[in-house]
Amino acid sequence: MDPVARKALLTARRQALLVDLANIRDQLDDPLPQDWDDAAIEQEDDEVLQALGHAHQAELNRIDAALRRIDSGDYGFCAGCGDVILPARLDLLPDTPLCAHCAAGA
């Protein structure tokens, strides 16, 4: 896959994450129910949403970094050792900055 196609893929994923994060924020802003049992369940749900939001934000940060690497011409080269990242690895993890060898040692 060429860098233009990877950039389109990453940009689409980025947009989907932004939509998901907005939905998560909206749900977290909902007031808690007055009933104690319902409020406890809602708080547990909020904890799950917060964890999902953190995971989405981390992925968004990795995607933004990958997009910067595409723009600078560094995309596809390992940030650890400088070797080429295999296309199969980039197919699975398009936002990865590391080759499999460096990722295993990290």
Automatic annotation (TrEMBL):
Zinc finger annotations (dksA C4-type) as residue ranges: 78-102
Keyword field contains Zinc: yes
DnaK suppressor protein-like N-terminal domain mapped to chain residues: 7-70
SUPFAM superfamilies linked to this entry: DnaK suppressor protein DksA, alpha-hairpin domain
Cited Pfam families: DksA-like_N (PF21173), zf-dskA_traR (PF01258)
Record keyword Metal-binding present: yes
One GO MF term: zinc ion binding
UniProt superkingdom: Bacteria
Ranges for domain Zinc finger DksA/TraR C4-type: 73-105
Keywords tagged on the record: Metal-binding, Zinc, Zinc-finger
InterPro entries (UniProt xref): DksA-like_N, DnaK_N, Znf_DskA_TraR
Name listed for the protein in its UniProt record: Transcriptional regulator, TraR/DksA family
Annotated organism of origin: Paracoccus denitrificans (strain Pd 1222)
